[in-house]
């Protein structure tokens, strides 16, 4: 003789009961890089250092498999007359490789800000369940297009305010006053470097911080960067 169903089985829908046994799905953690590929980046090995640093960062992200967060990467490049979406936002683990950037033309940074805002506001690419995005701006010069309004729009947008924004200035010609308007972390103002090899150091610090966040119990907490001298060239993700 069959026993009578329990009170909970009588009142809990079958779909809800099945959901309780489903594996939790990792939430997206978007990382969007705004990379200067203008003509001046061809000097002193800067574009080559940027290409290597980005490749290492994406490779490191792709090895992560956080239960709570899936790191996704998008690349926006600005060089020539306008910015381009070099790599659509996609899970780092499925990125097979990234085409090396070539330095050319002006510095249409305003165009890059507009593209970044458009991407942030696209709820098909960044759903509401995503964690707080990370925006990374890298430049060695000054904008050659209208940038004030696009940057203001990006910073004023709901998702732009929630995103963590970092900026790196490369070389003596970088417009520090302008770039200082991009970051929103008091503990992480514009990072300055005069050597191309420091581009990789900056991206390794970003990588370690994002990976640490993706594997933490609270992936939505703001990211902090550790650019202390103790940071070595050998990234060891197992120590995080």
Automatic annotation (TrEMBL):
Signal peptide: none annotated. Keywords: Plasmid. The keyword Nucleotide-binding does not apply. SMART domains: VWA (SM00327). Residues 30-206 form the VWFA domain. InterPro entries: VWF_A, vWFA_dom_sf. This is von Willebrand factor, type A. It comes from Polaromonas naphthalenivorans (strain CJ2).
